[in-house]
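ugh ok fine here u go
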Amino acid sequence: MVYDFAKSYPVVPCGGENPSRGGHLVDALLLRVGADQSEGAGFFNGPVNSRTREFAYVPIPETAAIQTGMATPYSLVVPPLQRSGVTLTSQFTVATMHLDPDFRHLTYGDQGQRASQIQTKLTHGDLIVFYAGLRDVHSSPRLVYALIGLYVIDAILPASSVPSSHWHENVHTRRVLPSGASDIVIRAQSGVSGRLERCLPIGSFRVPSAQPNKRPSYRVEPTLLATWGGLSIADGFLQRSARLPRFLDAAKFYGWFLNQKPTFIKANN
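structure:
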């Protein structure tokens, strides 16, 4: 199914102040999450119904050691997948989930270069915007790239500082962390953060606007890029990357986002 962006996202005036920052400018980063066709991400895409925008959130597989009794099995996503008529592929039967973000607990964790960018660029009241590449349950050769959640940041903490009573709330604290680990955990503000009940499609398989002879790839739709005020990546190129795309006008994006009247759920599925 080809998504009609002009029909779905009419151009409306959008103010852009995030009240959690008292009217000050906000910052925002765009993060790709969930299983996909890349190595290490499961070679699988969560399902989406492009007509209703209902979807299942399927995390990537975990690769690190987890504290005893804290693993999150893929059996947890079987019911929402069954509702979409989809079954997990065989490699997931022996794997556990890297459940991140964990929308049930409103947390997100990261490490290395990505963690450093988050700590450097974001603070209380800023935004982390999650998107995923989803597989349409209606026969289609193309993936549906869509926003699946948004966090208004409450705090960014070193994972090593989280007390053991809260380790279960994020995979980076469920992990057995080595000494000196640089992992971070973000806690989001309740009521204005969470998993979207229905995703917001943002991308299409297209050639770059200024390079018509280049091969097509998944990119944010040009009309949305203009409405948002742009991204720090060339022509909205969508990929899993160590360098996180930044919204050039986060307040403008947030105004657009609120105009979609999103419904949050405090659950992973």
